[in-house]
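DM from R.C. (forwarded with permission)

"hey, sorry to bug you on a friday — could you get me a structure for this? deadline for the figure draft is monday and I only need the backbone to look sensible"
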Amino acid sequence: MTGNTLIEMLPVLIVVLVVFIVIVSIIVIAVRKQKEKNIKLREQGFLEKGAKGNGTFQGVEYSYVHFQGGKNAPPYFKVFVECPSTGDFKITRETGFDRFFKRLGICVELETNDREFDDAFFITTNSEGFTREYFRKSDKRRLVTEVFARGFNELIHDGEKIVATWKSFPRGMNMEIKTIEEIAAVLGQLAGDIPNIYEQESAENIGWKQRRFFAFAVPIFLLVAGIAGLVMGLTTFHPLDEGKVILDSFKYSIPLLILFLWFSVQLLRGRSSSHRELMGVFALSLFGFIIAGMGGEMTLNGWLDKSKPVIHEVKVTDKYSTRSKNSRSYHVVLESWREGRYSEKLSVRRSFYNQLVPGQSTMVITTKAGKLGFEWLVEYQ
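My reply, with the result:
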């Protein structure tokens, strides 16, 4: 590079350097201002948004984290205290959803014989003996009530720690440090005086896990198989009237769905988490059975078809394209060869679409009758 070239580039290099310095300065100033703001908040007794850390209060070591939320995840604030034990439980406010399924006899909640507490909270546990003994003491029930009175709406013990969670924590709110310390103190008391009860897994619990696995495995398998069948049906054995195939599949998928859901209720009922497990099974089954029915009928209609191919030479009457978020599809309108129909619509490749002239071009369509009576497209040219 010659001296003249360097001299010519010097103004550009100076501009780049100045822009770089300005950007770095803006970032440094913004970071410094945020730090100063956070310091002022702490001096006022509040945490900054997105804070996480740990501390000690009245001899209780605790940790906390504030998640500010994401596109599909609501914000929350959590406070953790170590709590090793042989049991587990989860406590939430009792909702109308919980009460409805309790009345139906589908879920059976562990109760403490404290009417006011049992009406206010719903306990889910896999360690009934441990949890029953733990909440036999009125002090534990009082402490749980204190946690919820401070805005937190979920309390979980997993055998290692006890966690108070404020779900859907207000986005514009800064958590008060005093509140965290008070919650930590309450959690410290909840973590004390833990019953030493070891519950060997019963045959009933093992059987329930097997039934739960079956209840979830069936719709998951059907969903995966249904998606594969739907892809194959729409690409390899595409029916000319896919809407009619879908409607026809409901004759089989919906009765089977209802039967399976009834069977799932019998498999999963009788536990504190039964109604929530069943909602998961219901959601998976709704998609699994419906999609498996559609994909299965489309695929079997073509795969089992032993009829001879039929060739139709028809005129192209129109063509058009449609645009989705990330792609464009190309379609043609043809004179129909089927009795009682005026036209047929097909999706085609872009290169083929560009060659067609409506009113002049013709296409050669090959179809087969379909094992289940739904004519499907073999090929076009």
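R.C.: lifesaver. Residues 134 and 354 are 74 Å apart (CA to CA).
me: no worries. The chain has four domains: 6-44, 52-190, 203-303, 310-380.
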